[in-house]
Amino acid sequence: MSHKILVINPGSTSTKVAVYDGENELYTQTLRHSTEELNKFQEEDEQLNFRKQKVIEFLKEKSVALSDLDIVMARGGLSKPIESGVYLVDEDLLHDLKETPRKHASNWAAKIAFDIAQEGNVQACIADPVVVDELSDVARISGHPKFPKVSVFHALNQKAVARSYAKKINKSYDELRLIVVHLGGGISVGAHLLGKVVDVNQALDGSGPFSPERSGSLPVGDVIRAAFSGAYTQEEMISMLVGKGGMTAYLGTNDAKEIEDKAKVGEEEELAVMEALIYQVAKEICSMTVPLENKVDAILITGGMAYGKWLTDKITEKVAHIADVEIFPGEDEMWALALNGNRVLNNETTPKRYGSTEF
Ligand SMILES: Nc1ncnc2c1ncn2[C@@H]1O[C@H](COP(=O)(O)OP(=O)(O)OP(=O)(O)O)[C@@H](O)[C@H]1O
Ligand SMILES: CCCC(=O)O
């Protein structure tokens, strides 16, 4: 039976939107928003409405009526920690996404989906948001009870890639021990133990390798001293962690492809930063053998930077002694969301209620 699924995935500079018929993509587009366009908005709601309008225009262009839709699927944002799965977008979820102190474009996705779904008189859901939390108890203990480790990572893409790999080797995701590495604007390295991500770096503003635009783990004492020095506002300090950290801080660009191209031909600054990134990613991968008790079936590398063969070869050289390394370039978040929407429509899963999730 045919199911029309609208998928919405807002990022910092774009809104990805697609219409699927079941698992088959009918239309897809990355609606790019220039910095000037986005800087016009003073209030969060203004930007949200602007992006919603863009999605509605996309549907009109493709002659998809809201009444044609069977479900709207959105990328989840930085709500409270929840277990993996599909969640109905409801007032509780929308409330938390509006109030969250951690800013991220994915926080708008559920509201855009909810408004469009209401007009089409269908359900809106999110799946495997960035706050999926399956950490083991031991991984939560950070070193200070005031600052426990939290799970913020590319859960949707990591799980989709892990499941694709499992399918490819005719196994179930729940029987594998995998290290999944997402190399995107942010970098996350997760230990997937029998279907659960029991440890992962906090990929937004917490820990792990630096990335094209994030600083990853920093010497925290020095960061505190800088924060209280009077030289920086809170916003400036946060932007050093997310947005203007990592490669952007060292080289003034978040374009890892451009940096890799220069590193490959031996340009010194780019090579030094790339080598440090490779070193940090490889160290993080090695550290994830501990939660997997040294039994690793495979290491899977994904995300936009995984298109860079020079980079993935260098990482592979450093970790190939642990397990086979497989590369899944790019991300399949749109397809993963459509797949989850299709499972709901086929009654293979029932969306959970966010408010009833205990943590
Ligand atoms: N062919 C390529 N070779 C090397 N790097 C690439 C290539 N294509 C894209 N990248 C790099 O991948 C990075 C972006 O990755 P991706 O698209 O996964 O990030 P994002 O979706 O913006 O953020 P995130 O993945 O954290 O949600 C950029 O730094 C970009 O330069
Ligand atoms: C923090 C994980 C999500 C992202 O980088 O976009």
- The fraction of residues in strands falls at 15-25%
Any idea of the CATH class of the largest domain? Alpha Beta
Assign the CATH superfamily of the largest domain: ATPase, nucleotide binding domain
Output the structural class.
Answer: alpha/beta
Assembly status: single chain
Quote the CATH topology of the largest domain: Nucleotidyltransferase, domain 5
Give the strand order, joined by hyphens, for the main sheet.
3-2-1-4-6-5
Query: Which residues form runs of ≥5 with pLDDT under 50?
Result: none
Mean pLDDT: 94
Q: Write down the domain tally.
A: 2
- Tally the helices: 13
Rg calculated over all Cα atoms: 20 Å
Helix coverage percent: 25-40%
How far is the first residue's CA from the last residue's CA?
37 Å
What are the secondary-structure elements, in order, as H or E?
EEEHHEEHHEHHEEEHHHHHEHEH
The main β sheet shows up as: 6 strands, mixed
Question: What ligands does this structure carry?
Answer: adenosine-5'-triphosphate, butanoic acid
Shape, per Cα inertia axes: globular
Q: Tally the beta strands.
A: 11
CATH architectural category of the largest domain: 2-Layer Sandwich
From the structure above, extract its key features:
binds adenosine-5'-triphosphate, ATP-binding, binds butanoic acid, Nucleotidyltransferase, domain 5, cytoplasm, six-stranded mixed beta sheet, EC 2.7.2.7, globular, nucleotide-binding, five-stranded mixed beta sheet, alpha/beta, 13 helices
Explain what this protein looks like in three dimensions.
The protein is globular and about 55 Å long. The chain has two domains: 151 residues, Nucleotidyltransferase, domain 5 (2-Layer Sandwich); 175 residues, Nucleotidyltransferase, domain 5, CATH 3.30.420.40. The strands form two sheets. It has a six-stranded mixed β-sheet, with helices on both faces. The protein is an alpha/beta fold. The longest helix is centred in the C-terminal third of the chain and has 20 residues. The protein is built from 13 helices and eleven strands. Bound molecules: adenosine-5'-triphosphate and butanoic acid. The site of butanoic acid has 8 residues, from loops. The site of butanoic acid (BUA) has 8 residues, from loops. InterPro entries: Aliphatic_acid_kin_short-chain, Aliphatic_acid_kinase_CS, ATPase_NBD, Butyrate_kin. GO terms for molecular function: acetate kinase activity; ATP binding; butyrate kinase activity. It catalyses: butanoate + ATP = butanoyl phosphate + ADP. It is found in: Cytoplasm.
